[in-house]
Design goal:
This protein is α/β, with parallel strands linked by helices. The protein is 40% helix and 14% strand. Bound molecules: 4-nitrophenyl phosphate (4NP).
Length: 150
């Protein structure tokens, strides 16, 4: 079993979409996919309605996901930790205990645009278009990711 964690700030906009998209491309018998946020603002909540809507538009149901906060034990539970932006990277790596923990963490868009330090923009304060853009960035990255793992 390969365990993959998607991480953003709130765990209500970007990482729930990333979780839903990647899960749809991998088989559940070999892969466990989850998501978490570095902040604790929305613990226990469902994803943002705009993320649920864009997922639905592309045939995915992410409405039953529940927000949780990233914890240090996630370094033990997951093989790969994909973050959305550089700020998420710093927040996660700050909790790392050793170089093995750090080696698990990378920007999700490194999959589709290696060595460019590209970030998935936070759509929380913007409009619907931002969510469509996030969907396409993540879908493209998850295509690369799933091909890498399959
Ligand atoms: P996310 O977006 O990190 O993609 O889930 C955000 C959601 C909530 C907040 C910030 C970003 N917030 O400040 O509550």
């Amino acid at each position: 079993m390969t365990r993959i964690l998607m991480v953003c700030l709130g765990n209500i906009c970007r990482s729930p979409l990333a979780e839903g998209i990647l899960r749809s491309k991998l088989t559940s018998d070999k892969f466990f996919v989850d998501s978490a946020g570095t902040a604790g603002y929305h613990i226990g909540n469902a994803p943002d309605p705009r993320s649920i809507a864009i997922a639905n538009h592309y045939g995915l149901d992410i409405s039953t996901q529940k927000c949780r906060q990233f914890t240090v034990s996630d370094f033990d539970l997951f093989d790969h930790i994909f973050v959305m932006d550089v700020s998420n990277y710093s927040n996660v790596v700050e909790l790392a205990r050793n170089s093995k923990d750090i080696s698990k963490v990378s920007l999700i868009l490194d999959q589709s645009f290696p060595n460019e330090q590209r970030e998935v923009p936070d759509p929380y304060y913007g409009g619907e278009k931002g969510f469509d853009n996030v969907y396409h960035l993540l879908n493209h990255a998850c295509d690369y990711l799933s091909k890498r793992f399959l």
